[in-house]
Design a protein that fits this description.
alpha+beta; Ribosomal Protein L30, Chain: A; globular; ATP-dependent Clp protease adapter protein ClpS; hydrolase; ClpS
């Protein structure tokens, strides 16, 4: 399993990140708000945990939607069992 991480930047509106977490990652509004605030305050946060193929797709969808909205938002993925990983 792989974690999909969102990385904070100084340009992407918080509302866009919440919408993205709701549409791409299927979180409810409250959970999306919590994840967005964690990313904002910590610099990085877990959007979800998926199989390798689904994680790759979620990263690609995030980048596509971000670029369509002229946002520099970045996503990455890492193995879930990585002991040095950020959460």
């Amino acid at each position: 399993m792989y974690r999909v991480l969102l990385h904070n930047d100084d340009y992407t509106p918080m509302e866009f990140v919440v919408r993205l977490l709701q549409t791409v990652f299927h979180h409810g509004e409250s959970m999306a708000q919590q994840i967005m605030l964690h990313v904002h305050n910590s610099g990085v946060g877990v959007a979800g945990v998926f199989t390798h193929e689904i994680a790759e797709t979620k990263v690609a969808q995030t980048h596509m939607l971000a670029r369509q909205n002229e946002s520099p938002l970045m996503a990455s993925m890492e193995p879930e069992d990585d002991p040095d990983a950020e959460s």
